[in-house]
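Why does this matter for the project? Reviewers at the last site visit asked to see concrete outputs rather than summary tables. In response, this paragraph embeds two records directly. Each consists of the residue sequence and, immediately after it, the corresponding structure tokens. Nothing has been edited or filtered.
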Amino acid sequence: MDSQRHPSKIACLVCGGPVEPFLDLGRMPLANGFVLPDEFSSEYFYDLRVGFCSGCMMVQLTEVVEPERIFHDRYPFYSSSSAGMVKHFRKFAGEVLESIQEKVNPFVVEIGSNDGTLLRHFADAEVRHLGIDPSTNVVQVAINREIDTLCRFFNEDTARQVVADHGQADVILAANVLRHMADLNSKVLGIKSLLNPGGRLIFEEPYLGDIIDMASYDQIYDEHVFYFSVISVCNLFKRHGMEVIDIRHQNVHGGTMRFTVAHENVYQPSWVVRLQRRYEKITGLHELETYETFSFRTELSLARLEELLRDLKKKGNRVIGYGASAKSTIVINSCGITSDVIEFIADTTPEKQGKCSPGNHIPVRPREAFTSDYPDYALLFIWNHCEEVLKKERDFKAAGGKWIVYVPEVRIL
């Protein structure tokens, strides 16, 4: 891994200003690009670097992968696969439903609706709704659940079509979606035209402040073009006559911020927004030096994890990975971990089982391969679901097994 700054400046995807790269994780395969052996030679790689724009304060990738390479008919992530996220979305939907109960025939749109895990609560409540998602396999699951869903990428044309067919939305929802969109200005314009004058956009994304605090570098990969602070999100929407009126921190995905956005001068913004912006300046989220420190901490964490894994293997221990997540791809390839160190990765997603991890090609096997023959150690790639996993796999610990985690620091539980 090369963390040296690159001499040439890159134009910010939001404001066009210069972006200063601060972390280089090297050549990287698609994070969710799990492959069969006969596909090894055709894998796609890109340069995974992340940079900071001092103009609009947006943290972003410096090379963007075409969305069609990522979101397609074999997209391997289903929102309903995590019990914790199912519970979170149930509560999220309940709060939104309560806020619109006085409206006459409200219309709710979700961008990036996946398999309908969030939107199904609006369908159950017989609220007029529409999901928009480009991945045909997950969209079909939503349609089978009788959730109204449109299979296409969200953009200004999509927004105009939805308005023509259904009218403007009272609420637009998005969960872990906006950071995926490289043409963010265009997407915001689409949102603006789709949202009625008194409507609200409510979206949540992993919070940049938490990523920096915990050195959770594995959240940086091809799908995540942007990494949002409150300052950068306020700057983004202000460019288009919209404003952040409220924020609420959520304890999911290792720390998530929920933003509520509306047309400018319609609502009085909460004092919490001003307070958080002030806090971000105190903690240095507006300064390149903060991100250079993060880069150093990332290098140190990767070195310590690789050293630990190789030491355990030298001592004759069996080590497996748990959770074939996108995060696992970043860790495996950044550390240079192969199947001679990690025997296999256990995962419950049928679409990933029988395939190999992107890049370094560690086999992915069903959870039963883990529970039927416990290893000495399991590296928890889905650390953001740690509590859920440890509860589910309590027998592993009872049998003498030990968990390895690497966020916020490398340690054995």
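We now turn to the second protein, recorded in exactly the same manner.
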Amino acid sequence: MTFFLTFIKILCEILSLVVFLRAILSWVSPGQNNMMTVLLYQITEPLLSPLRRILPRTGMMDFSPLVAMVLLQLIAYLLP
């Protein structure tokens, strides 16, 4: 059981980092479609798209990466 919990914690940390990288890349080079950007979008989109449906629209700002990182960090913190 401890292996599973440790795996979930590490997965949450990695996903949080990937969401952060996607957010940074969207600011720096929003139009580039290189392999790394496509891979980041494929990994994070299943996590971010449900959050976008729940969160209210705020103009040009997308707060779903911020909410996703907070939720992932909270999950990692609350696991024993």
